[in-house]
Sequence to fold (582 residues):
Amino acid sequence: MNALALEVRNLSFGYRAEEAVLHGIHVRVPVGSITAILGPNGAGKSSLLHVLLGLHRPWEGEIRYFGKPLGAYDRRSLSRTVGLVPQREHVPFAFRVEEYLLLGRSPHLGLLAQPTAADLRAVDAALARLGIAHLRRREVASLSGGEHQLVLVARALVQGAAVMLLDEPTAHLDLGNKHHTLALLRGLAAEGRTIVLTTHDPHLAASVADQVLLLRRGRVLFGGPPQQALTDERLSDLYGVPVRVVQVENRPCVLPQ
Amino acid sequence: MRRRFWWLLAGSAALVVLSVFLGRYPTPPILPPRLLESDPLAARLVLTLRLPRLLAAFLTGAVLAASGLTMQMVFRNPLVEPGFLGVSQGAAFGAALAILYLSPSPWTVQASAAVFGFLGLGLTYAFARRLRYGGWILRMVLAGIAVSALFAAGVGLLKYLADPLTQLPEIVFWLLGGLWATRWANFLPVLAVTLPALVLLYLARWRLNLLTLSEEAAFSLGAAPGRERLALLVLTVAATAAVVSLAGMVGWVGLMIPHLARRWFAADARQALPASVLLGGAFTLLCDDLARTAVNGEIPLGILTSLLGALAFVALLATTPRTSR
Fold:
């Protein structure tokens, strides 16, 4: 097994006392792998991502990136290690894609520093990599859902974090854009980036993940390879409705019964 | 973009120079430059009255616009203005209180306005911390509305209690805003507070962009959103309280100018902040030139900025935004 990019041990967390939203979570994520956190709405997927990001302090348990506890990273070095791709983000001002992507360089710049030509080159590279150079001068608010999603992934590339946390990366995408995004994620993992994403779509988990975590009401029901995670019994349990999993071209396909 | 900025800079500088000679002495609207050498009264008028006043006008507009832009970005809301966290109404209450119960000297009124402006922010912040509803931004906005309303009620009460022949006109005139009382002695302390604040805001201009992102996105990009937003707020409020204490209620500059700057330059604060400073300064100086020159007497500055500002705002919203740079 590869070295671990992320290791979570016995993690518990809640926003209010006595109301835990995450209970005793264990996860081991190898470098260069894709982990899908699968669960129904309100299972605690986004909360888990935010705790992994360091935004909230866990009640209990430990989070380690590359063997080093999260608490031992300072803000800037943590933001160079872990990056977030949020769900579609509301931007109240008319930033252009280029300016928006440049913000991805913040972890590499001082508090009062200004981005330079080298930072712009990182933006160029990310735009080229995702094939969206034509969006450079567009206003972010004018982008379609698919374009916006690609721009958010591009910002994480500009950030250059070794671990990328993606919150519902394909929730607003059509079939073509979904395919494009998943291919991109596979490519990033092949380059050695570690990817953790949340989704409520079992097909997505089946088609891209090396490891699937089934999360229900803040507890991990099962964690393991997609073939073992995505079974009739486990998914029926997860979603609370009877479902059947059939194999289509060696991939699990979920049908509600 | 860069060319447009240099034009703005040159235009602002030209306006400042022109304003030195604009006025009603010896005859409106202009003072012939050579009179500065031959007429000692003209020289004294320009040096002791007009110069501090026009610098104060420019500074007031620059600070209100820069603070407005900063607050809009920090609160991720293009409709907030610098006085809304209880600062403007607090300052108004402080000024009215001083006119009524302390002494009506400009110094006392200014100091009391500054103290109560800060008290307004302090109350807003304390109140927001106790609210158990919504996120940080919503709580600050709600608390600001409540505290502003409290002080506005207080101002109403003081106006009711004031002597209608002596004190009430003073209060009303202060509330309408104006720079007629500006001298070097009360301008320099304001400059000492606002100049460092403007410099710090300018240095943080790129960071401001980062703070317009969602909490988790800003955090993931290395920011400490809560702490950084609070630091910028204290900076803008200090600067705003200082200029409000000098100029009274000068409305619409802090709301309208940032919109104009974003429209004419870019949403990116690297362009929008310096553009706001210059546009706000030039706009307020122009209004103050009108205020002291247009009629025999003085038009309150706040009336002119509100009138022209609101008209410009409507014109701005009625025209379609440009789509390419």
Summary: Chain A has nine helices and twelve strands. The longest helix of chain A spans residues 175-190.
